[in-house]
From TrEMBL:
CDD domains named in the record: TrmD-like
Gene for this chain: trmD
Function: Specifically methylates guanosine-37 in various tRNAs.
Quaternary assembly: Homodimer.
Pfam families: tRNA_m1G_MT
Primary localization class, coarse: cytoplasm
Protein name: tRNA (guanine-N(1)-)-methyltransferase
Region (Disordered): 83-107
Keywords of the record: Cytoplasm, Methyltransferase, S-adenosyl-L-methionine, Transferase, tRNA processing
Catalytic activity annotation: guanosine(37) in tRNA + S-adenosyl-L-methionine = N(1)-methylguanosine(37) in tRNA + S-adenosyl-L-homocysteine + H(+)
UniProt xrefs under InterPro entries: Alpha/beta_knot_MTases, tRNA_m1G_MeTrfase_C_sf, tRNA_m1G_MeTrfase_TrmD, tRNA_m1G_MTases_N, tRNA_MeTrfase_TRMD/TRM10
EC number: 2.1.1.228
GO BP, one annotated term: methylation
Protein family membership: Belongs to the RNA methyltransferase TrmD family.
Amino acid sequence: PLMRIDIISIFPGYFAALDQSLIGRAIADGLLDVRVHDLRDWTHDRHRTVDDTPYGGGAGMVMKPEPWGEALDALLASRRDDGRLRPSGQGTVRAQEDAASSVTVRREQADGSAPLPVLVVPTPAGIRFTQAMAEEFASASGLAFACGRYEGIDHRVIEWASDRFDVREVSLGDYVLNGGEVATLAMIEAVARLVPGVIGNPESLLEESHSQTVGGLLEAPVYTKPAAWRGLRVPEILLSGNHALIAAWRKEQSETLTRSRRPDLLDGH
Ligand code: 6GU
């Protein structure tokens, strides 16, 4: 596969959605290798506890560091053997040929040292996820996502992981989700569609909202047949066959729309 994606979550069921549509096809075609892991597999008590009360007080619960430590240990170990994560004390090592194919960045580092595997930690306190970040992640040979719940993961997990992974604490925007699962689905979709072969017609990648090639402006409205529907006509210029005029109309629409909805995107123009 071109890209391996590991996901650690206490709700692995969310990721059944990845078997649908384009991503599902890419997985079936062997372009993507997506592996979902239940964090509770790395607990050792009968209630499979993953959270505890916060030091210093406050509402809600915090994810305990120990299961995360073991899960991330397993992720790192999987780069050395068969790529399958094993909860400690379970299973045996079975070497396979794709040993080196796991969570690594494809690009060489300047100093020639081994690149750190990318670990994305979705959090509303993260830096904003952008199309540029999706493009960067799409050039990695592997990505891992650590999905937190409750008030977050004990911060020592992030500290510890930062010496072993290229850790990215990332937010989708200024609103709060209950956990990292839905954010992870969104990021995987944004990244996977940029992996060569995942989208049938790569030209469709070049013209859409937020892609660099339209200058990062919002895309003009689109229409299809019939030319008249419920008394509404498609803008005549789109029926003209004059490609230069159509391109100019789309550019004007794009700029007007962007000025009204997302003036922040015009700052660099
Ligand atoms: Cl990445 N996680 C959570 N829990 N909430 C969010 C988010 C991420 N991005 C926006 N809200």
